[in-house]
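Internal tracking record. Fields below are filled automatically when a chain is submitted to the structure queue. Please do not edit lines marked as system-generated. If the sequence contains nonstandard residues, flag them in the REMARKS field before resubmitting.
Queue: standard
Priority: normal
Entity type: single polypeptide chain
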Amino acid sequence: MTSDSCKTAGPAPTTMCRMTSDIFDGARDFLVREGRLLERRLFATLFQGAPAAGVVDALRGFRNPDGGFGHGLEPDKRCPDSLPVDVQFAFQTLVAAGPPDAGPLVGDACDWLASVAAPGGAVPVALPVMAAHPRAEHLSDWTFVPGLNPTADLAGLLHRMGAGHPWLALATGWCWSALERELPVDAHAMAGVLTFLEHVPDRERAGRVAAGVRERLADLAYFQPDPGDPEYGVTPLHFAPEPGSPWRRLFSDDAIEGHLDHLLTGQAADGGWALTWRPPSAAATTDYRSVVTVQALRVLTAYGRLTAPTPAMTR
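SYSTEM-GENERATED OUTPUT FOLLOWS
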């Protein structure tokens, strides 16, 4: 399903095949046929010129009266109650869509985060209420312990959105204290830390902490440097999802190009991208495939491997 039209670019002779309309049409058709409303609305905003308000409207369906988000927004569990990981997913989606009118949702979610945070401001990935519902095997008791995952990512996303909230100030202080003791040893936490370091206002302090990231990469649990390894892992493209990322410099051109090659050729026959882990149900698997399909399109388009059609070219 890749294009026959290729070119050579970059300092190394790497072949960069651009996406054809067939591949883009296949991804769109997969989302129309199998995807959640949220990812369909996000696709329409990112690639079809639709207003971002549609993404916000879809997110409201996952919102609880307490201001948090739940109902399987992050699809690896089917818990209806609000969980920090679902708030994290909501913030990531809002950042991707860039809506101008999401302030109340963000503020209410911060109020909820403050209500479940530890005294220092950190929050866990999930809460014990999740245990009563279907969930992926990796979502075990460790998710109930407050930590940099997801506190750093949540704080970084809020700084990126220009939010102001007492919980954000508290969480930012907690993250600085944790990071100046030790960088994380898990790739998921490191990805969130890099979001925090990219957007936190204290740039000098961020630079000092970031100086130690490169030497930590090789020892990170769940870091996947090899694009040919079929096992699950956090790849360089999760750390640097676009060429303008400040973390692009952490990886060689060959590493980035290899992962882009692997991602570009990873589209399945049904038009979506597959998973390398097992969600708790067939429905959750389909939901998460819609998530990673939109993510794949975003990354490949950002790096120039795919050329998104203009809104007039989509149907």
